[in-house]
Design a protein that fits this description.
12 strands; alpha/beta; isomerase; four-stranded antiparallel beta sheet; five-stranded mixed beta sheet; 285 residues; 7 helices
């Protein structure tokens, strides 16, 4: 005679398991805080610029994506980890997030809160230039600037030695229904050793810019362009990754009829992940 299958656990037992896990998560977060406290004592906040470490963050996020499974949406996991990282970074070295809200207050605020939480002060500005200027005057603040269209070439302010640079592009995990989908660049000062250089961002000024040249470059790089009527050209923010190089892009522009007047490296960021509806993440520039 076969045995009856074991009875499923009761709701009370399952809830006790959840309570136990919640307590473990809380204790681990407090333990992380203890380590950060010791880290502060070791560093004595002697490092110049923001306490953010873009390369380390990118590596952490990739490991998170690779090990994630189950019914909990990856967006929730991403936001939780982002807020943990940002909050503990704030505890080490307080900073503010300066946001350009010219493309819309709600979309930019969603991006800031999703990636940095509510503990970090949020300061809105009505232009990218104003947000970048605020960061330039600070020790370790961040600016969030739209990574799409722009009314002014705000990135020119990043060309000078010692100026803040682009250190990240968000969201790191991209999907069609991302809760904070606005593409933004993060601008700040961080140590050179902390930068991630998989995608370089260049400020390029050209003469003879037109729509045909823009179409010729679209397969090679992401470009934000602001017309420069004084030189019959444009100021470009060019994101270069993978097998492409700035020299190839310059050659393509010259072949299409443009003249390159100047170029300067203004930052870099990690290669992003695209998350399709089935949840399998893929690398993206």
């Amino acid at each position: 005679m076969s045995k009856s299958p074991p009875a499923p656990p009761s709701l009370e037992v399952l809830r006790q398991e959840i309570d136990s896990i919640d307590e473990q998560v809380h204790r681990l977060l407090m333990a992380r805080g203890d380590i950060i406290d010791r880290l502060i004592q070791v560093k004595q906040t002697q490092e110049v610029g923001s306490a953010f470490r873009p390369a380390r963050e990118a590596a952490m996020m990739r490991r998170l994506v690779e090990r994630h499974r189950g019914i909990l949406p990856i967006d929730t996991i991403e936001s939780i980890w982002r807020v943990i990282i940002s909050t503990f970074t704030f505890v080490q070295a307080p900073f503010s997030v300066h946001a350009d809200v010219s493309v819309g207050e709600s979309a930019m605020r969603d991006s800031a809160r999703f990636h940095f939480g509510f503990v970090v002060p949020y300061v809105s500005h009505f232009s990218a230039q104003a947000a970048v200027e605020a960061v330039a005057k600070s020790k370790g603040d961040l600016a969030l600037v739209p990574a799409t269209s722009s009314r002014t070439p705000w990135w020119i302010a990043l060309e000078a030695e010692g100026a803040p640079k682009i250190i990240a592009r968000l969201p790191f995990l991209e999907r069609a229904d991302h809760p904070a989908a606005l593409p933004v660049f993060v601008v700040s000062r961080v140590a050179d050793s902390a930068m991630v250089t998989e995608v370089e961002t260049w400020s390029v000024r050209v003469s003879g810019w037109n729509a045909e040249i823009a179409r010729a470059l679209s397969p090679l790089a992401e470009i934000v362009a602001v017309p420069d009527t004084a030189f019959d050209g444009a100021a470009l923010l060019v994101s270069v990754s993978g097998a492409a190089s700035l020299e190839k892009i310059k050659a393509a522009m010259i072949e299409a009829g443009a003249s390159v007047r100047s170029s300067a490296l203004v930052g870099s960021h990690a290669t992003r992940y695209t998350v399709p509806p089935n949840g399998a993440a893929k690398h993206q520039a």
